[in-house]
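PROTEIN DATA CARD
Card holder: glucose-6-phosphate 1-epimerase
Chain length: 340
Origin: Marchantia polymorpha
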Amino acid sequence: MALLCKPGFGATTTLNKEFVPRVCVGSRHQSVVGFRLRPFSNARLCVRATQSTSVSTGISGQFAIAGINVDAGEGGLPVVKLHNKQKSECQIYLHGGVITSWKSKGKELLHVRPDAVFDGVKPISGGVPHCFPQFGPGAIQQHGFARNCSWEVVATSNEDDTPCVTLRLVDNEYSRAMWNFKFVVKYSVWLQGDNLCTEMIVKNVDEKPFSFTTALHTYFKADIKGVTVTGLNGLKCFDKDPVTKEPVQSSEDRDEVTFPEFVDRIYKDAPSRVVLRNGLGDTLSLENEGWSDAVLWNPYMTMKLYYKDFVCVENAKLDPVTLQPRDSWTAKLTISPLSE
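Structure generated from the sequence above:
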């Protein structure tokens, strides 16, 4: 069941005044995409994200409740921390709206790359980054601008030991210069027992329709030699050739997908649930609503210093979603540890 943090839901606090986030735009690693558009040719522009401890303290004073607090994280960037009595916890940086840590019973299950930079300028490489309003290369920068933006906290709640935070991203002068539409994205993250749950809502607040693609580019901690992903057999897929960069269509014929080499693969019309075994003794169920496609990625020797330590299992919406004015689109994801 979706859990939006909102007034009247348990212990809740909300933001009443409007806040215009500062935005940053940088670069990102390559990823597979089934289409190509004209590259965005404007020079890289950036306004540094807020990093002061005083800002974190102010947010914490406004939104901290039982199971939720806001601290200064790496690089002084504001980070929201959730925890419950089941010994689950997670961290969400406002820069990029990215979940950088999720622990179940004290064990870390997400991966942040050792080359990740917490400078409020570049995207944070790892965890659960956003790709919006574009997945992969295309008319604007790689994977869009949401992962470079400073998101704002708009609500927190905690009922029945289920701490939840809702973040918001809105258009501004910079985003409209790149992608000339007015929008609101709300992203809720909560812990429900051992599970990590998210809900993303994109709303068109413009007077004209717009289209977008999007994904959650989730990095899982792993021993790549032992990783398997099940639930994808029989699906149409597109492999990105590491040399030509062009997608090659095929069909998945394995019950268990493994990663003995470079893998950058899109699965169209994926099932609502796949299962990941991370090679470290953990089995995770990824169950979703609204994320119609799946992407698997491991860079292999293109990142030879640390490819062995993670795998990306991504939930995506790769056929463009078109929203008319005042319409919205919603997708949900629940990641659950399984006992086997």
